[in-house]
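I am still getting used to backbone structure tokens and would like to learn alongside you. Please make up or recall a protein chain and show it to me in full. Would you write everything just below, so we can both look at the same thing?
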Amino acid sequence: MLDVAWPLARAVLFSMDAERAHELTLSWLERSGGLLGATARTTLGTPDPSLAREAFGVKLAGPIGLAAGLDKDGRAIPFWPSVGFGFVEVGTVTAHPQPGNDKPRLFRLVQDKALINRMGFNNHGSEALAQRLRGLHESGRWPSIPVGANIGKSKVTPLDEAPADYALSAERLAGLVDWFTINVSSPNTPGLRSLQGPDALGGIIDAVLDEVGETPVLLKLAPDLEPEALAEAVDLAISRGISGIVATNTTISRPQSLQADPNETGGLSGAPLWPLAKDRIGVALQAASGRVPVIGAGGVHSVAQAQELLDMGCVAVQLYTGFIFEGPGLPARLNRGLARQEHAREGLTRGAQA
């Protein structure tokens, strides 16, 4: 039903300012997520059991996850499994509550199936998120799929104090989430991407690891890093004890394929990011060399793209912009397509062994 109703809902939402539509949708899911979730589970279904997998010590219900940024403050956590997500990442959340950058700051490039955002980590802060997550656990509304928290640096915190800032969010959320992702790759907080360099990155990773005990910690990197720098960051992170890599975040580049006017500043996501993201995901996979899992993100809209990343060696794939443009049925469609291919491969293997 949700998938069938999507064309009309999309027309209504896309007639609004992009951020207003985003806020309206989250408010709707926060208030009515139970009913909508029941409807979605009936019509869309959960991932085929053959798609379940384990990554960084966490059991994922399927390979399609919700990327950070869509549900920054964890407002719709109970709803997300209903549309077929196998795992969810909330945030980016910061130690200090912050309003983010001035509006307007989120823009649709409809022809390109892309977004440009310069949100600036607008969120209610990691303490508020911890209270919300604690309430979900205590009320029995925690979802059946794993939930991770993406943590970033507060804008008011000087760069040289970044490790303590990240560590404070990790301390508040420790024991409430299944993993953490360190975000040093958003282009919308001044100086943040400089923290991807070896001098700063090691200190941040160490500070977070000191606070989280056995909880896995991942690192999210930008597609705008040159391959050598990206590989160096991956290698350093693994040597410091990181449990996985998320590649990639949004890009500040503007591919020539863009049909819309790309003059707005901020991070570009969606279909035009795919070629660059796939290339950098390949670099991350090669640098990781199987030592830790890699989650692929960036421009995924189709079964073929998701399958390509999995075939390259990614353990899972995350969606954001594709979900915005293709609608709530996208995770389930990807799951069905991946399951068909998985069963077909198993059939070919059994046939070859017979």
About this structure: The mean pLDDT is 91. The domain at 2-353 is CATH 3.20.20.70 (TIM Barrel). The first helix runs from residue 2 to 14. The chain has ten helices and 13 strands.
